[in-house]
Amino acid sequence: MTVNTHPFGADKYGEAVTAWTLANNNGASVEILDYGATVRSLIVPDAEGRARDVALGYGTLAEYEANGGYMGATLGRVANRIAGARFSLGGREYSLYKNDGDNALHGGRRGFDKRVWQAGYDGGALRFTLRSPDGEEGYPGSVTVTLEVTLTEENALVLHYTAGSDAMTPLSLTNHTYFNLDGSRVIDGHVLKINASRFCEAQPDGLPTGRFLGVAGTPFDFRAGRTLGEAFSMEHPQTALFGGIDHNFVLDGMDAAWLYSPVSGIAMAVTTTLPGMQLYTGNGFAARPGKGGAEYGEHCGLCLETQVFPDGMNHYGFPSPVLRPGEKYESETVFAFSAVK
After folding, report:
1. Domain containing 85: what range?
2. Within a domain: residue 243?
3. Which end of the chain has the smaller Cβ count within 10 Å, N or C?
4. Per-residue pLDDT tens over the stretch 164-197
5. 178 touches 300 (CB < 8 A)
6. Which of 30, 80, 84 is nearest to 57 (CA)?
7. How deeply is 9 buried, as exposed, middle or buried, from its count of CB atoms within 10 A (0-12, 13-18, 19+)?
8. Are 3 and 121 in contact (CB under 8 A)?
9. Residue 133 burial by Cβ neighbours in a 10 Å radius (0-12, 13-18, 19+)
10. Assigned domain for 252 exists
11. Dihedral-angle region of residue 329 (phi above 0 means left; psi in -120 to 50 means alpha; beta otherwise)
12. Catalytic residues
C-alpha cells in the first residue's frame, strides 16, 4: 500500500485543500480530498485489466464549490432531509437552516461536505477528522467525527465512521459518491440488485411519508437484479415524482446491493452496518463538465447512500439518529470491486 498527497487549491475561506491517494498492489486506488472528505477518484481494473475511474468528480476545487450535487462528499451532521428544518429533542425545539425549500438537506448551508477536515495517514488507513461545535447549523452539542478509509489488496474500499458528542444530538453520516462503472453517458445499462423488500414512500419534496411500500411489481424491485433502464421505463407514481429514483430502501441484511456493468465487466458489492440505503439515480442532474473532459447530465451516475432513514427525528418507528453523551457512534460501509469477463 502506498500513499501520496498533492495540493488541490484553497477554498473560498482561504483554507488549503489537499488530495490524498491510497493505492494497493493490484491496480486500485482512491483519491480523497480533505475538503468534505470527498471521494474524487476511485480506480479499479476492468475485465480486460484496464484501469477505470468509477467515481464521478471535478477537476478543480472551484468546481466542487460552484456545483451542487454533493459530488463524492461525506454528509453530516444529518444526511438527507429534515422536514421543516426543525426537530424536537429533550423537550426543546431546534431550528435549522432551510436549504431545500422549507426543509434542511445534508447538513445545511455549510455541512460537513463544505468543511476542510484534518487528515492523516496511520497504519495503512487514511483518517479524516472534523469537529462540529455546539450550535453549528443549529444542531446541539459539540461533535467530533472520524472517517477511516482503507483500501484492501482485494480492491475493497472500506469507510468506517466513528463519532462522539457532549450532548444529545441527531447524527447520520453517509458518502455521496456518484458511481458509473463504465464511463457511459448514462447508467441505464448498469445491472443493480438491492437486498430490500420495502422502500420508504416519498412526498413530492423528497421527504418520507412514514409509510413503507412493498417493492414487488414496481420499478423498486431490484431483488433479483435488473437494469436501471428497465426500472426507468416502468410507470409508477413514485418514480414520476422525480424522473427516476430518489428513495430510501429498507435493507433486509448487511449485504445491501450489487452493481454491475456489462460493458466494463466491473462489479461492485455493497455491505453496510446501517439499516437503510438511499438510491439516487441522478435525476435532473444539470449538464456540466466533469474531470477528464467528461460531460455529466441526467442519470450520469448513481448514489448508494447507506444511512439511517431520512427525517428520522420526525417519524415514530424509524431508526433513531440520536447520539447521546458517552455513546459511540459507529458504522461501516464497504464497496468491494471485482471484474468478470
Report:
1. 2-186+280-339
2. no
3. C
4. 999 999 999 999 999 999 999 999 999 999 999 9
5. yes
6. 30
7. middle
8. yes
9. exposed
10. no
11. beta
12. 176, 305
CA–CA dist 94, 99 (Å, integer): 16
Mode of pairing for the β-strands spanning 208-214 and 92-95? unpaired
Q: Give SS3 for 128.
A: strand
How many structural domains is the chain composed of?
1
pLDDT at 341: 76
Counting every residue written for the chain, the total comes to: 341
What predicted TM-score, i.e. pTM, was given to this entire model? 0.97
Q: Give the tens place of pLDDT for each residue, 54-105.
A: 999 999 999 999 998 899 999 999 999 999 999 999 999 999 999 999 999 9
pLDDT at 271: 98
Sign for the CA dihedral angle at 63, 3, 266, 175 comes to: negative
Phi and psi at residue 116, to the nearest 5° = -90, 120
* Greatest Cα pair distance in the chain: 59
CATH number of the domain to which 96 belongs = 2.70.98.10
Asked if residues 268 and 187 have their Cβ atoms less than 8 Å apart, the reply is no
DSSP state of 100: B
What span, in angstroms and rounded, lies between the C-alpha atoms of 115 and 131?
Answer: 10
Report d(CA 257, CA 247) in Å as an integer.
14
Flag whether pLDDT at 340 surpasses 90: no
* One-letter amino acid for residue 41 of the chain: S
Please give the Cα distance from 16 to 18 (Å, whole number). Answer: 7
The 3-class SS string of 200-234 reads EEECCCCCEEEEEEECCCCCCCCCCCEEHHHHHHC
Q: Nine-digit cell at 20?
A: 490524498
Q: Within 13 Å of residue 107, how many CA atoms lie on the same side as its CB?
A: 22
Query: How many Cβ atoms sit within 10 Å of the Cβ of residue 117?
Result: 22
* DSSP β-ladder status, 174-175 and 169-170: unpaired
Residue 86, all three cell numbers:
426543525
CA angle at 100 for the pair 96 and 103, rounded to the nearest 5°: 45
